[in-house]
From TrEMBL:
GO terms for biological process: peptide transport. InterPro entries: AAA+_ATPase, ABC_Ni/Peptide_Import, ABC_transporter-like_ATP-bd, ABC_transporter-like_CS, Oligopep_ABC_C, P-loop_NTPase. The keyword Lyase does not apply. GO terms for cellular component: plasma membrane. Belongs to the ABC transporter superfamily. Residues 12-260 form the ABC transporter domain. GO terms for molecular function: ATP binding; ATP hydrolysis activity. This is Oligopeptide transporter (ABC superfamily, atp_bind).
């Protein structure tokens, strides 16, 4: 954690994001706080609908203000973003902060060539000429592993495969060497070899420019090998955080145990079934009271179901978990029950 004298490069405090819908108000993010320093990578994991992408779209100011209510504070290098005018956010997006979107097919425009879409933010933020911006686009396509980049720079998105479109999205996000890079499932559509190339590229960017990276993913293996810190989200809240080593080696929240237990292991028999988390994620129109995970948790009897249903657990600063079990009891349960299953 940082002090008031040394604020974090990215600081999110008590963030709430609400969406107005015909069915009611969706509480997509519910009191989220975290910090990220330059040169470090924060992994954010959780099931679909846990608020990971919504949080980071809020950082970039990409929600429709007509249907979205945002409260709390987001500071990027000392500048407050939640109340910043759109002109300020436009100056920052694509330059100081950028995002690799999860679905390149919808993020890329079908009307313009891939090269033009990569060159456009570079021209806007650097004032480069069309020729120099095109050369930069070719350079970025080559960096992300697109074959024959001088020819493919004039292709349209539909002429690229799914994996190539994903790499083009990454090239667009990196073209201005952003200080903050948000990567939303950046390797989803890529084969293992290209995944490694892209993750190495992100590491090289970070080492060269000291960038801060947020990595949103379902792949705990990617997090283990790439991130420095880890934030586990559930139902719009952070339920556990710490360094990657701390969280993956000694997780303290039953939800984190469930995520780890549901992963296949090399030591398991081929026909051994996985251990999924029971139930389904809650509706954010009406999230459960108290601990949002209690309807799916197998440990409520340890502390009394009434407390889990009626009292919201708090997430301590630094390393910790938002769970009524407490640190000592979760450590014992993990050692005796969960760790032997993980192998």
């Amino acid at each position: 954690m940082t002090t008031d004298a040394t604020p974090a490069f990215l600081s999110v405090r008590d963030l709430h994001v609400r969406f107005a819908t015909e069915d009611g108000t969706v509480k997509a993010v519910d009191g989220l706080s975290f910090d990220l320093e330059r040169g470090r990578t924060l992994g954010i994991v959780g099931e679909s609908g846990s608020g990971k992408s919504v949080t980071n779209l809020t950082v970039l100011g990409l929600h429709d203000p007509r249907t979205t209510t945002v409260t709390g504070e987001i500071h990027l290098d000392g500048q407050e973003l939640t109340r910043a005018p759109e002109r300020t956010l436009e100056r920052l997006r694509g330059n100081t902060m950028a995002m690799i979107f999860q679905d390149p097919l919808t993020a890329l425009s079908p009307y313009y060539t891939v090269g033009r879409q990569i060159a456009e933010p570079y021209r806007k933020h650097t004032g480069a000429s069309k020729r120099d911006a095109r050369l930069r686009a070719v350079e970025m396509l080559e960096k992300v592993g697109i074959p024959n980049p001088r020819l493919r720079v004039d292709d349209y998105p539909h002429q690229f495969s799914g994996g190539m479109r994903q790499r083009a999205m990454i090239a667009m996000a990196l073209v201005c060497d952003p200080d903050l890079l948000i990567a939303d499932e950046p390797t989803t559509a890529l084969d293992v070899t290209v995944q490694a190339q892209i993750l190495d590229l992100l590491k090289d960017l970070q080492q060269e420019f000291g960038s801060a990276i947020i990595l949103i993913t379902h792949d705990l293996g990617v997090v283990a090998n790439t991130a420095d810190d880890l934030l586990v989200m559930y139902a719009g809240r952070a339920v556990e955080r710490g360094t990657v080593r701390e969280v993956l080696r000694a997780p303290r929240h039953p939800y984190t145990w469930g995520l780890l237990s549901s992963m296949p292991r090399l030591s398991s028999a081929v026909d051994e079934p996985l251990s999924p988390i029971p139930g389904t994620p809650p509706s954010l129109l009406a999230p459960p009271p108290g601990c949002p995970f209690h309807p799916r948790c197998g440990y409520t009897a340890e502390v009394g179901g009434e407390r889990c249903r009626g009292e919201r657990p708090t997430l301590p600063d630094g390393r910790g978990a938002a769970c009524h079990l407490g640190t000592e009891r979760t450590r014992t349960l993990f050692t005796e029950q969960i760790k032997p299953r993980l192998g």
